[in-house]
Design a protein that fits this description.
Helix content: over 70%
Number of strands: 0
Oligomer: single chain
Number of helices: 3
Largest sheet: none
Shape: flat
Radius of gyration: 15 Å
Distance between the termini: 34 Å
Order of helices and strands: HHH
Strand content: under 5%
Length: about 50
Amino acid sequence: MSGLLSRVTKFARSPEGRRAVREARRASADPKRRADTKRLIGRLRSGKHGRK
């Protein structure tokens, strides 16, 4: 498991990782996107996510 953590840390410090973090922060600051994400998480937690 520590190998996975070190790979994630290495990615987060890379230029691509920093770009991904920056985009995620910008997306999370958008109120509409935040509401959509909250709704999706609620659906996934409740088990009612459209599968039959």
